[in-house]
Amino acid sequence: MLIKIDETAIQYIEEHYESLNLQSSEIKSLDNIAKSFYEGYHTISASLEVLEFLTKLDLLEYKSKRVYSYLLSKFTFLPAYEDFCTDYIIVKSSDVIFRKVENDNKCIFEVPLRYFTDFMSAGPTILLSEDISDCIFYEKLAAKYIEENRQRLNINLCFDHVPGNGGGSYRVYKHKVEAGRITLAIADSDKTYPEDNIGDTLLKLNTTYNLYKDNKVTNLIALNVREKENLIAPSLYLMCTNSGSKESLNKLLKIEVSSEFSTLLKYIDLKDGIKAKALKGNENRKKYLESLFKEFSDLVACSYEEIDDQDDEFPIMEGIGRGFESFLSDVLDRGLEKKLEEKQKIAQKFSIPEEVMKELESSITIKSQLFNHLPNYLEEEWQSLCQKIISWGCCAHPVA
To answer: Tens digit of pLDDT for each residue in 163-208?
Structure first.
């Protein structure tokens, strides 16, 4: 995360210099902030005057002064972090109280200088989600965004992945925040239509977040889709070589290309599909999907009028199964490239249909500019999510 050292922090040091020593909370905090940069956990910004002061502050450890000297040499590049990051920390005088300033999409945490006295409070940002694969997905998605915008984002990411294990996520979240860790939590909304109630996991996380949001550096992102699987469009799932249910995905593609109905894909249960019991007795949910039955009848196994007549376990629409894992390995990792390399080796001895090779090459080309191939209904979701994740995980290269 970006930690900006404010002029008031240095003014405090100057005013109280005679009473400070190597063990003072303020000096420890400045050492810990420097160490967080040195270890590649966070990045630091400050004015020219602040950096010049810190390079000469004899109470600091040698490594700390070396970090601040390094930052001074890179001073002209530091404002770029502040321009990009939506959320960051400003370290102010020890006289101030913790304050969170929110404006539009920005969230700035103003903290007293002694906030980082304990080194773990300056440790890697905790990225907490329901499952470890969720954490990996979010970081890889943000890393892909950086890769495609490297000309303006010379940023690395550093996170400490923490799985919440489903319904118990709020307990893990509470523990990490109370331990003073910088913590970003991301959770599915579990909404089945836009006005639906949020799920129990997010509800408990939100209650916990409200307890600490005004005195701890933490944030909770509620996905603006049902679950993480809904962040991936059918066309992107179809890029995966091991993607099952290609027939279902090709049908879902018809919804994706429909400007009128594509947002349905944000709330449909793509993973497990739709069973009759999910709609029976829930008129709002059923009404929201009415257009699915009317406009895309080949996707569903019964008519809208027949829903209530079906057994609870009747599969109205098939899901895509483990498509998420395939997207993670093939598109956000090097799965597609590895498969192309394997087939190229095989092709030296055996005949492989040309269309197979071309399909793989086409997918790799699309993958190289993934954010330019997003359907309209997901563009804002990906952009805002990645910007938040990068803001909380941004770091510089460790100092050699």
So the answer is: 998 789 999 999 999 999 999 999 999 999 999 999 999 999 999 9
Amino acid 46: pLDDT: 96
* CATH of the domain spanning 125-230+386-393: 3.40.50
Contact 112, 92 (CB under 8 A): yes
Distance of CA 364 to CAs 229, 243, 312, 344, Å? 21, 15, 41, 14
Neighbours of 379 (CB within 10 A): 12
| Count of other CB atoms within 10 angstroms of residue 329 | 16
Other C-beta atoms lying within 10 Å of the C-beta of residue 18 = 6
CA neighbor of 394 nearest in space, from 153, 38, 112: 153
Domain extents in the chain: 2-118, 125-230+386-393
Handedness of CA 259, 202, 144, 324 (dihedral sign): negative
Strand partners, 159: 125
First to last CA, the chain: 20
How far apart, in whole angstroms, are the C-alpha atoms of residue 313 and residue 332?
Answer: 34
3-state secondary structure 204-268: HHHHHHHHHCCCCCEEEEECCCCCHHHHCCHHHHCCCCCCCCHHHHHHHHHHHCCCCCHHHHHCC
Reported pTM:
0.95
What is d(CA 267, CA 227) in angstroms, rounded to the nearest whole number? 8
Name, in order, each residue with C-beta under 8 angstroms of 395's C-beta and a sequence gap of 6 or more: 1, 37, 40, 41, 42, 43, 155, 156, 157, 158
Q: How far apart are CA 329 and CA 333, in angstroms?
A: 5
**pLDDT recorded at residue 105:** 86
State the DSSP code for 98: P
384, HSE (Cβ side, Cα atoms, 13 Å): 15
Q: How confident is the model at residue 236 (pLDDT cuts 50, 70, 90)?
A: very high
